[in-house]
Design a protein that fits this description.
2 copies of one chain form a homodimer.
Chain A: E1 2-13, E2 16-28, E3 33-37, H1 44-51, E4 59-64, E5 67-68, H2 74-84, E6 85-88, H3 100-110, H4 115-128, H5 144-156, E7 162-166, H6 174-189, E8 193-197, H7 201-204, E9 209-214, E10 217-223
Parallel strand pairs in A: 3-8, 3-9, 6-7, 7-8
Antiparallel strand pairs in A: 1-2, 1-4, 4-5, 9-10
Helix pairs in contact in A: 3-4, 3-5, 4-5
The complex binds adenosine-5'-triphosphate (2 copies) and magnesium ion (2 copies).
Chain lengths: 227, 227
């Protein structure tokens, strides 16, 4: 499903070069649940952005469902981002002037889902993460953890094949965190390919396997049970 | 040092009233280290905003160092926010067009600290949280955890009497999280009054005592050791 081969992502500033990713190779099979851990600044978000086709590697190959991403047309890339991949950003990136329901609806509008179908799917997505009571509120009128959950609802509403979640429980208490993890488990059991960046060992433990990044490289791999 | 008496903070939207804080009374002595926990949406950030003089309660009394905050002049409030209180926001609120060093320098410029003194204090503040290597970079060029640590450096650089930290380790791995907690411990040992909102029991455990919010009320209090 996902094959990364010698991926580099380098930022050049003046004569300073920073290798956010320094030769990452990894394969993720369809339906696998992988956790990515590592120190702050080790390249986890960068890796997720490359996987989500939101950032192009400086070099290396990324094959998604057998096709080299760098060779996809704009239309094909657009379709992949709209329908195949859901993304939960570390800083949410909700649209400030839209309420929670409109934020969750947005991916369906882009993908051409009919209006009659959208309303119910928004409701169910918000309910699954426990923020239905905030659906008419804009991000500024919500708590940090409520915004995080709206971002998760938005990422899941298109029922993507792959979900990339960048620290999805970072601002959640144990109860709402557990609700989110149970949702992810249900989606995983239904065949979703799930890659979760997390600092929380309790979250990483639920994965099939864990990849540890350090300074842009994969330093270690282990089964989830060994975390 | 801090005396809250029957604090309410109500949001009214149409005929809907939401009591983000519903009668909170609490006293925090100078030098105490208090953790605030509770479900997502329970009022923790709202409480911190009231304590930080960034939000006015709908009703109730807040006495800070013996003075009723509602009766302070604009000049006095300004001085309190600039010199007495440091605030780490749940979503950091760094200035996007300024690099890390300039962001940390900002409170000192507002408070009239001399230029010669500022440079060294910025360097030490960034170093104490392990992000000195990113000092010439803007927030967009940093990882989530690096931004969080710059926000912490900015909040501590004026050596305030009170530090209010809204989930300061939420995006940090165990190593950088530990570095931040050790910094907070050192400041606490030096007499800082410290109030930390956290979802992490490991962070709450380090406090003298813990206050649990639920639906805008204090549901429970316990010593840190009992978390
Ligand atoms: N401007 C606003 N208008 C209406 N409701 C608001 C507004 N700001 C916050 N709220 C609501 O007030 C309640 C308390 O919010 P607060 O941000 O204090 O929660 P919190 O305990 O910090 O949550 P979290 O752990 O998710 O950060 C939430 O239900 C939130 O939706
Ligand atoms: N636009 C940029 N220009 C320069 N350096 C950048 C840029 N974006 C990210 N970086 C750097 O790349 C490195 C990896 O960043 P990344 O966001 O992937 O880390 P991370 O593992 O997600 O960290 P965290 O756990 O703190 O979120 C960091 O050192 C960061 O400062
Ligand atoms: Mg990150
Ligand atoms: Mg909050």
């Amino acid at each position: 499903m996902i094959e990364l081969s010698d991926i580099w992502r380098t930022y050049t500033m003046g004569d300073e070069k920073l290798h956010a990713l320094a030769g990452v190779s990894e394969t993720v099979e369809a339906g696998e649940h992988v956790a990515v851990m590592g120190p702050s600044g080790s390249g986890k978000s960068t890796l997720l952005n490359v996987l989500g086709c939101l950032d192009r590697p400086t070099s290396g190959s990324y094959r998604l469902a057998g096709r080299e991403v760098a060779e996809l047309s704009d239309a094909e890339l657009s379709r992949v981002r709209q329908r195949e991949i859901g993304f939960v950003f570390q800083s949410y990136h909700l649209v400030a002037r839209l309420d929670a329901a409109a934020n969750v609806e947005l991916p369906m509008i882009f993908a051409g889902v009919s209006r009659s179908e959208r309303k119910e799917r928004v409701r169910r997505a918000l309910e699954a993460v426990g923020v239905e009571s905030r659906s008419a509120h804009r991000p500024a009128e919500m708590s940090g953890g409520q915004r995080q959950r709206v971002a998760i609802a938005r990422a899941t509403v298109m029922e993507p094949k792959i979900l990339l979640a960048d620290e999805p429980t970072g601002n959640l208490d144990s109860a709402s965190g557990a609700q989110v993890l149970e949702l992810l488990d249900r989606m995983s059991a239904a065949g979703l390919t799930l890659i979760v960046v997390t600092h929380d060992p309790g979250v990483a433990r639920r994965a099939d396997r864990v990849v540890i990044l350090d300074d842009g490289c994969i330093a270690r791999r282990m089964p989830g049970s060994e975390v």
